Amino acid sequence: MSNINLIDSFQEFKDFKNIDRPTVISVLEEVFRSMIRKRFGTDENCDVIVNPDNGDLEIWRTRAVVEDEFSEDDDLEIELAEARKVDPDLEIGDDFIEEITLESFGRRAILAARQTLVSKVLELEKDEIFKKYKDRVGEIVTGEVYQIWKKETLVLDDEGNELILPKTEQIPADYFKKGDTIRAVVYKVDMMNATPKIIISRTAPEFLQRLFELEVPEIFDGLITIKKIVREPGERAKVAVESYDDRIDPVGACVGMKGSRIHGIVRELRNENIDVINFTNNISLYIQRALSPARISSIKLDDEEKRAAVYLQSDQVSLAIGRGGHNIKLAGKLTGFEIDVYRESSENDEDVDLEEFADEIDGWILDEFKRVGLDTARSVLALSTDELMRRTDLEETTVLEVVQVLRAEFD
């Protein structure tokens, strides 16, 4: 039978992504039954048959044969005389079965039905996408960059679904162009205006965790557990790991031979420095490991205030703090303690290398002092302001500020 464009394009429905064929058939049948109810008042006595392979449609209507002039409902009954025009052998009480063609509904009804059909299938598809990605929150997805805007990037997955990578969820060193393949973790899934909005992230700790699971079989198999991850995206990350098998070195397994396993992760994260440390319930030891690569002399803990006073030799302070303060900040997040760093003074520790003041004095100023052979605090303080200005060509205000910082160290 002719389907008048309603199912001529059935291929676009039955192969819809994320929707199984029985579901699409069910939607089609419901649309047709709605047409029948509008025309005949009921669909109880109608059978709708949809061929799942090619979309062919058959509608069969059954009415009871009654005596002439005794029909109370033309939608459910048909008079004997009229029925015998089609089949002369019919008797009162028989079932009169006839095929209803789509043409009989009229072109306007068919076009409305087709529009309803498209709308329902699209709505169903959106629901399926939402459910699919809602269950995948925290998983890594791979997609292709499709469009780049100022505040976000549009990424398409393998099935053409739209994923949003906001600028805030990108590593600062990330640079993408259309067609690039990128990896990220499914961060959040919301339904906005009946359309799923899938947010992906490259800065979330879960992204780093999934990368470790991909690169380190022992983590994937559960032999090594990641206890906690803290990150300053693109700068530094600290990962606390623990092994339930004494024969396995968790740190060594994560790093790999000559860094073979962690190298791929670092490259994916735009050269983010990753410190992998052994987890322990001993808080003092945990803080020492978290402040790596600095070597700590002693620690005083205040468990109630969750503060730790850490004492280090002068040459270890800058290592503990790290560039931009990232090391000490991440160590605090990892351990849950507020960490205060103190220089440990001793009789043998009478001078301090100028490099230790890099967090207070600009590097170019320190370089100017070192250029003229002044590389420790006391060597600078031993000279007058005029002499320092003459040797370094620095302005008086700059020299005075440096001297003030250096004197405060010894005071």
UniProtKB/TrEMBL annotation:
Keyword Cytoplasm: yes
Protein name according to UniProt: Transcription termination/antitermination protein NusA
Function: Participates in both transcription termination and antitermination.
Oligomer status and interactors: Monomer. Binds directly to the core enzyme of the DNA-dependent RNA polymerase and to nascent RNA.
HAMAP family for the chain: NusA_B (MF_00945_B)
Keyword NADP carried by entry: no
Keywords of this entry: Cytoplasm, RNA-binding, Transcription, Transcription antitermination, Transcription regulation, Transcription termination
CDD domains: KH-II_NusA_rpt1, KH-II_NusA_rpt2, S1_NusA
Domain S1 motif, chain residue ranges per copy: 138-203
One MF term in the entry's GO annotations: RNA binding
UniProt xrefs under PROSITE patterns: KH_TYPE_1, S1
Record-stated family: Belongs to the NusA family.
Compartments (UniProt record): Cytoplasm
GO cellular component: cytosol
Parts of the chain that traverse the membrane: none
Gene Ontology BP terms: DNA-templated transcription termination; transcription antitermination
Entry-linked Gene3D superfamilies: 3.30.300.20, Nucleic acid-binding proteins, NusA, N-terminal domain
Main subcellular location: cytoplasm
